[in-house]
Amino acid sequence: MDKKNALRVGALAAGTTLMMLLMSSPALALTPDDGDDPGPGLSVIETLGLYVVAPIGLFALIAGLVMVLDRSTDREPKAKAKA
Length: 83
Prior knowledge:
By secondary structure, the protein is mainly alpha-helical. Helix content is 57%, strand content 0%. Residues 1-29 form the signal peptide.
């Protein structure tokens, strides 16, 4: 990639990021809307369990099931033909 294209990509990324930041309005989140009824907050342990441990556990479970239940035979190493 030449210098001109790298500069163009950088400018596009910076412009996109700036537009996304300008269009989002986090300041409006401080004012509750009608009908908002937030529940109790999560503790640090609950947050880590929900957003870190649970996805890793689900990934490991799915990967383990795929490996155990995989019955394909086309992936066995083939014997090399002797010349």
